[in-house]
Amino acid sequence: MAKKRKRVKSNFKRAFLITVFCLVTNFFVISYIGGTLKNVIDLKKEQQELSGTLVDLKEKEKTLKAEVNKLQDPDYIAKYAREKFMYSGDGEYIIRIK
User: Fold this and answer.
1) What would you report as the CA-atom Rg of the chain, rounded to the nearest whole angstrom?
2) Which residues of the chain have pLDDT under 70?
3) Residue 71 and residue 77 in contact, taking contact as beta carbons nearer than 8 Å
């Protein structure tokens, strides 16, 4: 009868240790998966933000290319200099109105 009790205690200890091991392993696996999912969600948010930034930068690029094309024209440069830097041509007066 003592052997039977020892065997029952031994089986109980073994089952308890296996259960604890499985719980600890499950905790680490679930923690790892949770961290990975958080990283994926953060990267998706960042991707959306960067996509919006890309659209804005492409629009700005188009505007700047158009400006570069305009700056190739000498008449436009003269007009731009007059407006921006208040340069005047021969016989012209600058009157600033706010």
Assistant:
1) 38
2) 1-8, 98
3) yes
* SS3 assignment for 48-73: HHHHHHHHHHHHHHHHHHHHHHHCCC
Rounded Cα distance, 53 and 57, in Å:
6
pLDDT score, position 7:
67
Helix (H) or strand (E) holding 43: helix 2-70
- Residues 6 or more apart from 86 whose CB is under 8 A from it? 94, 96
Mean pLDDT of the chain: 88
Give the C-alpha separation, 95 to 64, whole Å: 30
pLDDT at 52: 94
Q: Could you tell me the pTM of the whole model?
A: 0.54
